[in-house]
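New to this. Please check this record:
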Amino acid sequence: MALIWGNLLHLSFDMWADRQVKRWGDFPRWHLKYLCVSPCLRFDESLWNELTDRMAAVGMNMVVIDLGDAVRYESHPEIAVKGAWRPAKLKKELMRLRKLGLEPIPKLNFSSAHDAWLGEYSRCLSTPTYYKVCADLIEEVSDLFERPRFFHLGYDEENHWNQESYAYAVIRQHELWWNDFLFFVRQVEKRGMRPWIWADYVWHHAGEYFKRMPRSVLQSNWWYGLDFDPKRQSTVQTYLDLEEHKYDQVPTASNWAEANNFKRTVAFCARRISPTRLKGFLQTPWFPTVKAFRQRHIQAIDLVAQVLQSPYGRL
């Protein structure tokens, strides 16, 4: 199987705060308005087409699509924002992507820090209602994507720091975190797909993580800086720890902070992760698909293109 050279693109960007904030970590002021959920779809289809065409042209082979509330699901239409895509439109677009040579992979982020897209159900965490709605959505999306190889569950940054600006903040811990996470794993696997997650929970729960995390779950650790010395950057060490424990990985890079991060991620991981467990690489721009961020999206793709044109592109 060819290595994954993928890119994360957003239909929905409603992942973060449930209220408008004036300051948030390192996000620039002009970006903040996109971090609050919106009642209307924030998405430019012409830009989407340009980006996916460009991805195919440079040799990329996968697009991970953050769906969120940007689809009017038949099972739960109440989640959809104004302007959300109908399922028929999504299916038509998936056909176009496949014809381009891009494998479309669905993503629904079920972290409590990034589930504002669930609307009222984001405040029903770990209840029978919550489990029913989430199972319905996974089933419908798996049907829309015709049982894809992977289903990305997100599941990152469920901590206090990432929710301190929220009006409603909730964190699952200990047995409840594992109970819910393994519920999602079962929902995905029983439909013939492989669960895929951001692996940052391991950063602060390594002992438990390596005892309880199923090896069937595809791991995407991430580090967006330029310093790849594991002695100085514990998140970089995580790539090595996951390899030591024999987990399949898709290391994740981004041009959100540093343009050269993708190239350095590939250079570091390609030499240290076994070819049998290195499944590919994922670029994650972390910008909404709107024209205000066109240049950042173009840059993200072109940075992958540079690696594909290097000896690493022949891995």
Notes: The helical segments are 45-58, 87-100, 128-144, 174-189, 206-212, 234-244, 261-270, 294-308. The chain has one domain: 4-314. The beta strands are 4-10, 62-66, 103-107, 150-154, 194-198, 218-220, 252-253, 280-283.
